[in-house]
Amino acid sequence: MSHAAEVFRKDYRLPAFLVDQVDLAFDIRERTTVQARLQLRRNPAVAIADEPLVLDGRGFDLLEVAVDDRRLGVGDYQRTDDRLQIAVVPDRFTLRIVTQLDPEQNTTLEGLYRSGSMLCTQCEARGFSRITYYPDRPDVLSRFSVRVEADAQRFPVLLSNGNPVESGALPDGRHYTVWDDPFLKPCYLFALVAGDLACIEDHYTTASGRDVALRFYVDHGNEARVPHAMASLKRAMRWDEQVYGLEYDLDLYMVVAARDFNMGAMENKGLNLFNARYVLASPQTATDADYDGIESVIAHEYFHNWTGNRVTCRDWFQLSLKEGLTVFRDQCFSQDLNGEAVHRIQSVRQLRTVQFPEDAGPMAHPVRPDSYVEINNFYTATVYEKGAEIVRMIQTLLGRDTFIAGVQRYLREHDGSAATIEDFLAAHEAESGRNLDGFRRWYSQPGTPLVTITDEYDARSRVYRLRLKQSHAPSPNGAPKQMVPIPIRFALRDHDGRRISVSPQPPLLPAPDLILLEDEEAVLNVPDIGSSPNPSFLLGFSAPVRLQFAYTSDQLVSLLLDEEDGFARWEAAQRLMLNAFFELQASGPGDDTRALLDALQRLAARPVEDRALLAELLRMPSESYLASQVQPLDAARLTSARDALRLRIAQALTGPLSVWSAAAPEEPGASNAARRALANVSLWYLMSTRVNRVLDIGLKQAASPNMTVAFGALTALNDIDCPQREAAMDAFLQRFRHEPLVLDKWFALQAGSAIGQGVERVRSLLQHPDFTPNPNRLRAVLGTFWRENLRAYHRADGAGYRLLGDQIAHLDRSNPQIAARLCDGLLGWKDIVPPQNQLLRAVLVDLSQQPLSADVGEKIGKALL
Ligand code: PHE
Ligand code: ZN
């Protein structure tokens, strides 16, 4: 086990020393030498006068330490694994640190590392202290100037944050560039890139008329795949000006695409680093979903320039201050641009599939955690997505204009400094005059609240009554759960489908269609109702809760067919599908299955208005979502029932599915993308009939020049054991062998396929000549395996668990962050049927007896508690 220490939020102390200026000089050779000159002074806000200087640092060779140009001997300072301490220093001084790094050997992808032929950095959360000694914490803000020197041929491009101020040639074929960033920043926003990269440049004129150069740096040959990311960036810049009144603040904005990257992307000031999959796209290599992902990640990182960079976090417990808010902003951007309902449905699907289970498992934590062992383990769906939901609820409650004014006030009050979630709430309180204590509780307690609603109609008094109740699962440490404010948007309809308006009264606030459930219980009496109405709750998914209401099948069918709120229609479809799934799993087809099929047939008989929405309405819940809905998980039963449901839907809707699946256009554009989405989901169902003509269509479309069409066909074929699948997969591999991002798709399909011996196939994928242990490839194989291939992963003999466990142990030695991500597949052993749960537990125990990183150690330790 690891002995890494737990860090507590309550232990926060102001930094003892401040850094006014950082001058870095990188000398890139076989190894890289870094000279750091720090202008340090004691923090006047801290009383203790003779506190020693303590700096963070690890993983490099230390060549020199000098205080005010006086070189220190080894007796003048102390070093531990991850610290440097100098007992006696002046109140104000210059510290020179010279370190030597070996980026070639750095497999953690943190600090300075090599990706392809370039060198790049990743500093969030604590990667900067792999470069030099420094107070590696987000509340120490400084001005950075950076000189980079390297071989001119191997590294013609030398980048860092801010503005280029000087560059020139040096003897021996070397050259240098100096960068200066005028904005104060914490070291986690530092970045450096050295490489031989193509540059695509464009321009943006800000609202106030300033010209900003936009530069994308990508591997040579990928230039033609940048336009979508570039256009997305300009849309994001415009949107932030129009909606939040926020303009970009430097004259240059750079994005670099790296092949090897642990996360999605990184918002370093003026120099974003991206996982290449969130930059590069062409219709031949990227799906429509990839296009959407690029647009939202580009926007996300851009939006961080204000919510994250101009105002940063005091400590890492406040991570959701920048991430929850920025996810919320990127979600609003995507909703505004691409249609509200469909985008909201996709966000909710993600939240329910990943965040809800996380919040019910051993790694459950508040959006603002109280403690952590390894901060990298807290870049979670809870901090990001649940954090965004809390911000969304605040907006719902305050109204959009007041909310935006509150964000602007928060940015104004904290510009150039490090803030807390409390500061964010306080700004909204000041702006709106409302008390937000209830939201403090949303931030501080884990778990997904359950809202139970019952209704009754009294024909004599003509009163319709709703009773609402919130409840919270007890927290693991026994702390009592507190009630939280839950905004529930709802609608009542009469039997002709007409909306019944409800006059404002408590607990309705502030709009007539919004219930604010603040206490444990609330009752809403609606007078003057002629007959029992059809209710619909949580329109637009107005709160991140589970909601229980005994909808009848008829009510769900009418919601699916006639509700205006797209999200509510989808929710009705999901409930109908879940009911049918449970029925098939328990006893075979009956009333619920009939109700679903009947509803879908009626849906299909209607003229199609919104194809993208229809595609979502038809889509079946994923294996992993279903897994979160059954207790305990019996993967073999689950997958059989899901297969049966797929086939029944295909048989009941063969006519319309055939029509829709035939219309998969190959040209780009949103309306074509909607057609493709509908065609792909249709083909997916039809394929389950195993009719030869359909299998042949799959084989043919898998060769389409349009990646959405091709990938849709492969996805449809993927679980069907037939020669067409084999032929299509082989052809795809040959065609894209030299396209890493597309090859990831092939690996993911293989790892997720239900056919044959999944465990053996995954094992051979890891030995495949085209396999490399790059994070994207690892996620494609192992992430897809545990998340989307329940049948193979939960094989009765535990071979799937052992395979994942072995890989985690192995990867932990090179890249602990990636290893720890994959641990999520091991954490849920308590939710699995016996005796399989014990096989999974044995893998955890086995791992716990090996030497582990803090990352993996923390997760395994918590899972075994
Ligand atoms: N801050 C990055 C983002 O959301 C995520 C990230 C965290 C990237 C840590 C790398 C390392 O936008
Ligand atoms: Zn972010």
TrEMBL record:
Query: Mind telling me what this protein is named?
Result: Aminopeptidase N
What Gene3D superfamilies does the annotation carry? 2.60.40.1840, 3.30.2010.30, Neutral Protease Domain 2, Peptidase M1, alanyl aminopeptidase, C-terminal domain, tricorn interacting facor f3 domain
- A Gene Ontology molecular-function term? alanyl aminopeptidase activity
The UniProt function text for this chain reads: Aminopeptidase N is involved in the degradation of intracellular peptides generated by protein breakdown during normal growth as well as in response to nutrient starvation.
- According to its UniProt record, this protein's enzyme class is hydrolase
Family affiliation: Belongs to the peptidase M1 family.
What is catalyzed by this enzyme? Release of an N-terminal amino acid, Xaa-|-Yaa- from a peptide, amide or arylamide. Xaa is preferably Ala, but may be most amino acids including Pro (slow action). When a terminal hydrophobic residue is followed by a prolyl residue, the two may be released as an intact Xaa-Pro dipeptide
Q: Which cofactor does it need?
A: Zn(2+)
User: Mind giving the lineage of the organism this protein is from?
Assistant: Bacteria, Pseudomonadati, Pseudomonadota, Gammaproteobacteria, Nevskiales
Q: Which SUPFAM superfamilies match?
A: Leukotriene A4 hydrolase N-terminal domain, Metalloproteases ('zincins'), catalytic domain
Q: Name one GO biological process term.
A: proteolysis
Ranges for domain Aminopeptidase N-like N-terminal come to 92-189
Question: Which keywords does this chain's UniProt record carry?
Answer: Aminopeptidase, Hydrolase, Metal-binding, Metalloprotease, Protease, Zinc
Query: NCBIfam families this protein is in?
Result: pepN_proteo
